[in-house]
Amino acid sequence: MQLLDIGTYFTSEQAAESAPVGSVLDDNAVRDLYAYPADLGRPWIRTNFVASIDGSVTADGKSAGLGTPADGRLFGILRELCDAVLVGAGTARAENYGGVSLSAEVKARRVANGLAPIPTIVVVTASGSIDSDSRLVTDAEVQPVVLTSAAADSSKVAALRSAGAMVIEVAGESVSTDDIVETLDNLGFRRILCEGGPGLFGQLASDGAADDLCLTISPMLVAGDAGRIAHSAGASDTPMQRAHVLADADGTLLTRWVRRP
Fold first, then answer.
1. What one-character DSSP code corresponds to residue 10?
2. Counting Cβ atoms within 10 Å, is residue 101 exposed (0-12), middle (13-18) or buried (19+)?
3. Which end of the chain has less neighbouring CB within 10 Å, N or C?
4. Most confidently modeled of 3-7, 50-54, 187-191, 220-224?
5. Can you spell out the DSSP letters for 98-119?
6. Which ranges of 121-176 would DSSP assign to H, the alpha helix?
């Protein structure tokens, strides 16, 4: 990856100094550029998406169809840096999510940086519609968290708990952004990586809770009727400022945007 551009926002002076514009970046330099702000007093929600040049969020129905080697490399680094991976149930089902799997080297590096060896998967589903025998539950080294509502199917909730998931129910028939942030905060998770889907991202953006967007632009045209990276009932304006733009030799662009104070 080559650093094409860097904006006025830096998470640290080290990142700005270690990655001058035009430099080719090793993994340590990429980690510096994507470091979370220090001394967080609340959950910082970063969202990671990939889209085609023409704005499609999927190819052949899955975001994985837009993936490139550079996007895959960044995907792993972003997971390495976070406390929790936040995801909507629809995306978890469509992408056949399991628990986060990391090498012994990455686990050791996380522990050295004050993090748990493996980030926790936190799934948001108002209806509790996660199968208890899904990979989210059966293929996870760390107990997943399922955040659901009081209206969720009680049999599904019981099955998830029996299978080993931590199920947290909030009042009402939906899971609000305040519920999400409060739950993450209560669990001690500050560095959050939201991996979608568009509905969850749209909710967070509309409610002013999306702090940071990492958007990969895949060098593909898709056309068709695929959706965009954020959906919500109404439009909302959230001014963002550019943190940096990286490029790979295959044409992939890796951009990072941070919400203006």
1. -
2. exposed
3. C
4. 187-191
5. ------HHHHHHHHHTT--SSP
6. 135-138, 154-163
Place of tokens 């919500």: 232
Could you give the CA distance from residue 190 to residue 173 in angstroms, rounded to a whole number? 26
Order of strands across the sheet that contains 191-194: 2-6, 240-247, 253-259, 212-218, 44-52, 191-194, 84-88, 120-124, 145-149, 166-170
Backbone angles phi, psi at 177, to 5 degrees: -60, -40
pTM of the entire predicted model:
0.92
* Alpha carbon distance 145, 177 (integer Å): 16
Q: Average of pLDDT values for 118-145?
A: 94
Q: Which candidate, 220, 222, 238, 231, places its Cα nearest to that of 71?
A: 220
DSSP letter for each residue of 174-212: S--HHHHHHHHHHTT--EEEE---HHHHHHHHHTT---E
Torsion of CA 237, 243, 248, 253, to 10 degrees: 10
Instruction: Say whether 135 sits in a helix, a strand or coil.
Output: helix
For the chain, the farthest-separated pair of C-alpha atoms sits apart, in whole angstroms, at: 56
Query: Model confidence at 64, in pLDDT bands (50, 70, 90)?
Result: low
Q: Which 3 state secondary structure label does DSSP give 39?
A: coil
- Of the listed ranges 12-21, 168-177, 243-252, the one predicted with least confidence: 12-21
Tokens of 179: 């519920």
Among 229, 217, 249, 213, residue whose Cα is nearest residue 52: 217
Mean pLDDT of the region 132-144:
93
